[in-house]
Design a protein that fits this description.
single chain; Growth Hormone, Chain: A; 9 strands; globular; transmembrane helix; transmembrane transporter activity
Length: 546
C-alpha cells in the first residue's frame, strides 16, 4: 500500500480485507456463479475491484449514472427509429407511389433482422477492440445513416438506409447492457440495469408521442433529422464520458476473492510461496493507488483504442463460446422465454392501432402516441419491483443461506412478468375478438402489460445469465439478444396469417399457453440450475474453474 493513498469515498464505500486463510468460499467443486455475497454483515463486492483508478468499477457514482443516461438515450433513439415508423406508416406511404405499397413494408420488417446481424458482427469486435470504439462507431453510423434516410430519393434507398441504421442500432440490445453491467457490482446489478431500461423506455415513449405529430405535419424527413440531431448530441457526450469498460481482472475476481502469491521479497509472483486472499467489502473505504497504476486522466478517458495489439483469435473464441452456450438448457430456456415474450409484444404492437382506430373505439391517429406513453408507468413498476426488488431479494436469500448467493435467486421475481404475460394475452385476445363488449382500456392495458412482461424477462434474463457466467457475459448476451431478434423477425411475418386463421382470441390464447409452459419451466431451472452450471464448468468451459 502507498503511504499517500487516494481514497474512493463517493460510493460504494469498501474495505479491503487481506487474509492468508486458505478456506475461502470458492473451490473447484462449486458451481460457477455461486459465490459468498455476504460476510460479517457486509456485502462482498463482486467482481473484486482493483486499486487501479482506471478500473471502471472505481468510477465515481455521478459518472456511473451519467453512463446509464447516455447509453439509455442511445438505446431509446435506436428503438425509436427502428420500430417507431409503424405508428405513422400511413403517412409514410403517401410519399411513395401506390405500386410500392407492398414493398414499403420492408421498412418495418427488415430492421429487426439487421439489428440481429449487427449484434453478430459487433459483439465479437467488442471483445477484441474494446467496448468504447464499437459504441462510438455505432453512434457515428446512426448519425450518418439517419441523414441517408432523411435525404433518400427512392424507396430502395430508404430501405437501405434503415438497414444500415439498424446494424448500428443493434448494439442497443447486447452491447449497451454489457457496458452498464461492467461498471456495477453483483449486488446492485439488477437495479442499475432497470434504470438503464427505464431511461430507454421513457425516452422511446416520449419520442413516440412526438412522432405522431412530427411525421404527419413535417414529413418523415424531419423525423429522421431530429433523431439525427439527438444522436449527434449523444455522440458528443459519449466521446467525453463513456470510457472504456473492458478491464483485465484476475479470473477469481468474479468469485469475490482474488488470490495473490508473493515471493520472498514481497513481490507478486505466480510461483510464490506465500498466498494472500483479497476481498473488498461494503464497509469502509476502498483504497486506490494512482502512484502504482497511474491516475485516471482525461487523456486516458477520451482515448478510443486502449488495446494496442488486438488478439483477433478472440473473435473466433467468442463465436465458439456463443455456440457452446446453446448446450446449456438454462440458456436455451431463457432465450425461448424472451423470444416468446417479445413475440407477444410484437403481435400486440402490430395490431393495437388497427383495433383502436376501428369501430367502436375510433381513436384518432395522434392518440396512438399517448398509448405508447403509458409505457412510462411500466418503468415506474419495473425499477422498484424487478430492479431494486430483485437485488433486495437476493441479499435476503443470501443472508438466509449463510451469505451464499445463487444466480437462480434472480428467477423468483420472474413470476410477476409471467403472470402479466398470461393476463395480457387473454384480455387482449378477448377484446380484439369482440371489441363491442370491451372497453378500449382492455386493449391499452394488456398491450402495456405485455411490454412490461417483455422488459421484465429481458432484465431478469440478462442478470441471471451474467451472474451465472460473468466471464462469458458477451457471448451469452449475444445469444439472448440477437436470438430473440431473429425470433421476432420470423414472428413479424406470421402476425396477419395467424390472426386470419385463428382470430385475435385464438392467436393470443396460443401465446398465453406458451407463456404458461415456459414460465412453469422456471421451477426445474431454479432447482437444477446449479447442476447445469457445474456441468458447464466441467464439460463446456473448464477454463473458468482454473
Amino acid at each position: 500500500m502507498s503511504n499517500h493513498p487516494d481514497v474512493k469515498n463517493d460510493g460504494p464505500t469498501a474495505d479491503t480485507v487481506e487474509t492468508t486463510d486458505s478456506k475461502v468460499f470458492s473451490d473447484e467443486h462449486q458451481a460457477h456463479g455461486t459465490v459468498k455475497l455476504l460476510q460479517g454483515g457486509s456485502v462482498v463486492l463482486i467482481p473484486t475491484p482493483s486499486p487501479d483508478p482506471k478500473d471502471p468499477l472505481n468510477l465515481p457514482a455521478w459518472h456511473k449514472y451519467l453512463f446509464i443516461l447516455i447509453v439509455g438515450a442511445y438505446s431509446a433513439t435506436s428503438v425509436l427509429v427502428t420500430s417507431g415508423l409503424g405508428a405513422v406508416f400511413p403517412s409514410v406511404l403517401k410519399e411513395y407511389p401506390p405500386e410500392d405499397a407492398t414493398r414499403a413494408t420492408d421498412l418495418l420488417t427488415y430492421p429487426t433482422l439487421f439489428m440481429g446481424i449487427g449484434n453478430l458482427f459487433a459483439m465479437p469486435l467488442c471483445v477484441t477492440l474494446g467496448r468504447r470504439p464499437i459504441f462510438l462507431t455505432s453512434l457515428t453510423l446512426l448519425a450518418a445513416s439517419g441523414l441517408w434516410c432523411a435525404f433518400s430519393g427512392s424507396l430502395s434507398s430508404h430501405i437501405a438506409g434503415r438497414n444500415i441504421y439498424s446494424l448500428a442500432a443493434g448494439q442497443s440490445e447486447a452491447l449497451a447492457p454489457l457496458i452498464v453491467e461492467e461498471i456495477f457490482f453483483l449486488h446492485e446489478r439488477s437495479s442499475k440495469l432497470s434504470w438503464y431500461v427505464g431511461v430507454q423506455t421513457v425516452g422511446t415513449a416520449v419520442m413516440f408521442v412526438a412522432t405522431a405529430y412530427i411525421v404527419p405535419a413535417w414529413g418523415v424527413k424531419w423525423w429522421y433529422l431530429i433523431s439525427t440531431f439527438i444522436n449527434v448530441a449523444i455522440l458528443v457526450l459519449a466521446f467525453f464520458f463513456v470510457v472504456e469498460t473492458k478491464f483485465d481482472r484476475p479470473r477469481d475476481a468474479d468469485k469475490g476473492a482474488v488470490h495473490l502469491k508473493f515471493d520472498e521479497h514481497g513481490n507478486v509472483n505466480a510461483n510464490g510461496d506465500t498466498e494472500m486472499v483479497v476481498k473488498v467489502l461494503t464497509r469502509e473505504n476502498h483504497v486506490l493507488q494512482p502512484e502504482v497504476f497511474g491516475p485516471r486522466t482525461w487523456r486516458h478517458d477520451i482515448k478510443i483504442f486502449h488495446f494496442k495489439k488486438p488478439d483477433w483469435s478472440q473473435t473466433v473464441t467468442f463465436y465458439k463460446e456463443a455456440a457452446q452456450s446453446l448446450c446449456l438448457l438454462s440458456v436455451v430456456w431463457m432465450l425461448l422465454l424472451n423470444g416468446a415474450f417479445l413475440g407477444i409484444y410484437v403481435y400486440e404492437s402490430s395490431t393495437f392501432a388497427t383495433i383502436l382506430m376501428s369501430p367502436p373505439y375510433l381513436f384518432k391517429f395522434n392518440w396512438l402516441g399517448y398509448v405508447q406513453l403509458v409505457q412510462i408507468l411500466d418503468c415506474v413498476l419495473l425499477v422498484p419491483l424487478l430492479g431494486y426488488g430483485s437485488d433486495m431479494l437476493v441479499r435476503a436469500l443470501s443472508r438466509w443461506r449463510h451469505g451464499t448467493f445463487q444466480p437462480e435467486y434472480r428467477l423468483i421475481v420472474l413470476s410477476l412478468p409471467v403472470m402479466c404475460a398470461i393476463i395480457s394475452c387473454v384480455l387482449f385476445g378477448q377484446a380484439g375478438a369482440d371489441p363491442h363488449r370491451w372497453h378500449w382500456m382492455a386493449i391499452v392495458a394488456p398491450y402495456n402489460l405485455g411490454f412490461f412482461s417483455f422488459m421484465g424477462a429481458n432484465l431478469i434474463g440478462i442478470t441471471y445469465l451474467v451472474d451465472s457466467f460473468p466471464s462469458k457475459a458477451g457471448p451469452l448476451l449475444l445469444v439472448l439478444c440477437a436470438g430473440r431478434g431473429f425470433i421476432s423477425f420470423g414472428l413479424s411475418y406470421s402476425t396477419v396469417p395467424l390472426i386470419n386463421l385463428t382470430g385475435y382470441n385464438g392467436a393470443m390464447n396460443i401465446f398465453a399457453i406458451i407463456s404458461g409452459v415456459l414460465g412453469a419451466m422456471a421451477f426445474p431451472v431454479y432447482l437444477f440450475g446449479a447442476r447445469v452450471r457445474m456441468w458447464a464448468t466441467k464439460k463446456v468451459w473448464p477454463e473458468i474453474a482454473q
